[in-house]
Amino acid sequence: MKLKVCGMKNENNILDVADLDPNYMGFIFYEKSSRYFDGVIPELPEHIKKIGVFVNSTFDYIKGKVEKYNLQGVQLHGDESPELCQRLKELELYVIKVFSIKNQFDFKVLEPYETVCDNYLFDTKGKEPGGNGYTFNWNVLKSYPSAKPYFLSGGIGLDQMDAILLFLKRPESYLCLGFDLNSKFETAAGLKDTTKLNDFKQKLIANNYEL
Hints:
- The chain is an alpha/beta fold.
- The chain has a single domain (about 1-205), classed as TIM Barrel (Alpha-Beta Barrel), CATH 3.20.20.
- The chain contains 5 helices and 10 strands; from the N terminus they run βαββαβαβββαβββα.
- An 8-stranded parallel barrel has the order 1-2-3-4-5-6-7-8.
């Protein structure tokens, strides 16, 4: 089970979160976001992968941020084409394609992306591309047709822990790679509460999930 902490912004807070040893840390390069990142990423342990989050950005814009911040991966939250995903894969980047779900979803839209991204991320469909702060109907994933592991996102927090543990016992969670954590673990936009993050991690460990 992997943890990705997204929407990092403050340099000292980035280091504090890194001490919790997440697998991935996400930096948002979408200017309309309150978590838009334009600061300095301090040196992180090599095993913590830096992921840039983009929404309908051009290849050149993404490539520029990858080079500036030495990103190891990208998370694409918009209507990015399979062709763009393929070009990013050719840069030897780890590519996560995001799809937003509410009460239903046509999984056929995944087909063109099967060979051009590493993982999917499913979040909640809302007014904004990500960061809506509430969960979608996880029962939709009973119809997930792919063999590609996915991240679960969208309003994940400590208050969902009982539901998360129940979900992880269900067959449709078999390919759940991990959780994308953001707004429910903040004291302000982009400022993460490390106590809450650690509580979430420890609850998974206490239930025999290896992190």
